[in-house]
Specification:
Blueprint (H helix, E strand, L loop, with lengths): L2 E6 L4 H11 L7 E7 L4 E7 L2 H10 L1 H4 L4 E7 L14 E2 L5 E9 L2 H10 L10 H15 L2 H11 L2 E9 L2 E10 L4 E4 L4 E4 L11 E4 L5 E5 L3 E5 L5 E2 L4 E2 L15 H7 L1 H9 L19 H6 L2 E6 L1 H18 L3 E5 H4 L10 E7 L5 H12 L3 E6 L5 H5 L2 E4 L12 H21 L4 H23 L1 H10 L5 E6 L4 H15 L2 E6 L16 E6 L5 H12 L4 E6 L5 H5 L2 E4 L8 H19 L18
Parallel strand pairs: 16-17, 16-18, 18-19, 19-20, 21-22, 21-23, 23-24, 24-25
Antiparallel strand pairs: 1-4, 1-10, 2-3, 2-4, 5-6, 6-7, 7-8, 8-12, 9-10, 9-11, 11-15, 12-13, 13-14
Helix pairs in contact: 4-5, 5-6, 8-14, 8-15, 10-14, 10-17, 15-20, 16-20, 17-20
Bound molecules: fructose -6-phosphate.
């Protein structure tokens, strides 16, 4: 992960770098650093922890740094070496002249390190990045040409990287390159910005170049930009107009972004619905799907690949598509998919699901399936992302920027996209009767107001959550289409409260997990009316018989529940098929209120990052 920024122009660079890094905090936040060109040298400033700590360091050196107008910066999510000042970027070569910031993983760093140590280079950090600093410096010492040294070093590096490099002998130059990691150059008037992502510079310019893998960009203060391909041949880069508006990210009065984003969910669904379903009797419009009727009918398999929360949306997607479209669907974690000899061909539709559109494992999986001839459909919240660029069909979920690291609104938007996609394909394939289709569309149209009803009763959910805030473990059980909801509810709780929460298909309890149950263990049963209601009720009885603390999340008015459960969270009635859209909302709130009550850093939980660009 990690975020990179760079600037070269006439403005004071410190503010630009700090503002840029702030926008990239979603990529990591365990340490940060900048390298600034000052009157006589390049100075490096670093701090462990959140960006505020780096801000304090720079404030203490204001007189040295305030006139600088060239610099690079970095915000880190540790991969190699603990979060510490010494492991924070920028890293400096032994000669002290070259500094570098890096996002990605250098896979052959151990070999490079050995080779460089044998030559006498001394390493200060445990990072993979430092080997690249010494490698480029070593080559530069021989060829005396910085871009050439970067090209030559790139040929020796294995892995993924986006790099920005500065050198004392070229005080007004930044060299940048990338492979399998994002790097964008913002083109201003007489100034250039370099960043891992657009928000870092969008308030300054909307013109940008998406650097391609293995290209090397040389950005100079004389207002020149040179881009070379991997062989060093100059190419004319495509300057794109970004379809972005600068957004000021505000909590709008909520204590945390997560709570605000949970509250945005009804409107997000309304937005997605606009133009796609007008009424329960009109056809679904999904122009984004570029599969013609013939190819759609010929599909014999769908594979959905994703990670984390997106994987849970994908798992529910399987239930939805198989039920409505009668096509077999396999769902797999991208990190597993890429190391398997999967049966994927031209008749397989491969769906990649990713909030960020940058997740390395999913991106690799998508590229692999593309080579095998599959149609690639991407469901993402970032239509400008690397995954979106690989898409044959792009379903942009339009949830707006999600700041909180724990995904909430992007999840519900992904889930909703699966309903639309499945209904659309079912209409074309004729696999569902007209009457059922219109019932489902009617229910879909009702979802925003049902979610609003849950949010109106959030105080009750808060009270319930607080009762369980001091537990060490938490079990979520469900069956059928809500089994992935149990997984997602548990993931939300563990990632922001650090409570050991696990989701199980309730039928599996008796095959092992039931051994853990006693009077200390909360068991939350996602008990939605429908085909598995009675079965899940029996599984809940089994848990109650082991003295577990029982909580029901239900749309049932069944009186029996009052005896069985210690706490009952009621949600509006909804068809079983659509219930994951409703049942997830109280689970997001429970996770939020427990973490908030425990005083955790809700929006930026430890060890996590919003965009996982390392495998
Ligand atoms: C959890 C969460 C992660 C992501 C996962 C995949 O709240 O957000 O589990 O879902 O890292 O990320 P994307 O969806 O960007 O591919």
């Amino acid at each position: 992960m990690c975020g990179i920024v760079g600037y070269i122009g006439d403005k004071p660079v410190v503010d630009i770098l700090l503002e840029g890094l702030e926008q990239l905090e979603y990529r990591g936040y365990d340490s940060a650093g900048v390298a600034l060109k000052t009157a006589s040298s390049i100075n490096v400033y670093k701090a462990q922890g959140k960006l505020g700590n780096l801000r304090d360091v720079l404030t203490a050196h204001l007189s040295e740094v305030s006139h600088s107008s060239v610099g690079i910066g970095h915000i880190r999510w540790a991969t190699h070496g603990a979060p510490s000042v010494v492991n924070a970027h920028p890293h400096t070569s032994n000669c002290g002249d070259l500094v570098i910031v890096h996002n990605g993983i250098i896979e052959n760093y151990k070999e490079l390190r050995q080779e460089l140590e044998d030559k006498g280079y001394v390493f200060k950090s445990q990072t993979d990045t430092e080997s690249v600093a010494h490698l480029i410096a070593d080559i530069y010492a021989q060829v005396k040409d910085l871009p050439k040294a970067v090209h030559m070093a790139a040929k020796k590096i294995q892995g993924a990287y986006a790099l920005c490099i500065m050198h004392n002998e070229f005080p007004d130059m930044i060299v940048a390159t990338k492979r399998n990691a994002p790097l964008i150059i913002g083109v201003g008037s007489g100034e250039y910005f370099i960043a891992s992502d657009v928000p870092a510079f969008i308030k300054h310019t909307k013109k940008a170049i998406y650097l391609k893998d293995n290209q090397v960009a040389v950005v100079q203060k004389s207002s020149s930009l040179l881009v070379e391909d991997e062989n060093g041949k100059q190419v004319t880069p495509k300057i794109e107009e970004l379809p972005w508006e600068p957004v000021s990210l505000s909590k709008m009065g909520y204590k945390h972004f997560m709570l605000k984003e949970i509250h945005e969910q009804p409107d997000i669904i309304r937005n997605i619905l606009t133009g796609k379903i007008k009424s329960s009797s009109s056809e679904i419009v999904l122009d984004e799907v570029n599969l013609n009727v013939d190819s759609l009918k010929k599909l014999n398999r769908i594979q959905v690949i994703a990670c984390g929360t997106s994987l849970h949306a994908a798992m529910i997607g399987k239930y939805i598509i198989e039920d409505l479209c009668r096509i077999p669907v396999d769902v797999e974690a991208s990190s597993e998919y890429i190391y398997r000899n999967t049966v994927t061909d031209e008749q397989t539709l491969v769906i990649g699901v990713s909030q960020s559109g940058e997740t390395a494992d999913t991106l690799t999986a998508i590229k692999q399936s593309k080579v095998r001839g599959s149609h690639i459909l991407i469901i993402t919240n970032r239509p400008d992302s690397a995954m979106a660029r690989e898409a044959d069909s792009l379903l942009s979920v339009n949830a707006g920027i999600e700041v909180s690291v724990a995904a909430t609104k992007s999840y519900i938007a992904q889930l909703f996209s699966f309903y639309l996609l499945a209904l659309y394909m079912a209409e074309i394939k004729g696999t569902v009767e007209e009457e059922k289709l219109s019932e489902l569309k009617f229910e879909l149209l009702m979802l925003p107001q049902k979610i609003e009803q849950i949010l109106t009763h959030k105080d009750d959910i808060q009270k319930c959550a607080r009762k369980y805030a001091n537990t060490r473990d938490f079990i979520y059980i469900a069956r059928g289409i809500n089994y992935p909801t149990a997984l997602e509810g548990a993931l939300k709780l563990k990632e922001i409260s650090y409570i050991n929460a696990t989701g199980y298909p309730a039928g599996e309890l008796k095959h092992g997990p039931i051994a853990m149950l006693d009077e200390t263990m909360p068991v939350l049963s996602i008990l939605m009316n429908g085909s598995v209601y009675e079965k899940l009720l029996s599984n809940s009885e089994e848990a109650k018989a082991r003295n577990a603390r029982m909580i029901a999340l239900t749309n049932s008015t069944d009186k029996k529940l009052d005896e069985l459960f210690d706490d009952i969270i009621r949600v509006p009635d909804v068809a079983e098929f659509l219930s994951p859209m409703i049942s997830i909302v109280p689970l997001q709130l429970i996770a939020y209120y427990i973490a908030e009550f425990l005083g955790k850093d809700v929006d930026q939980p430890r060890n996590l990052a919003k965009s996982v660009t390392v495998e």
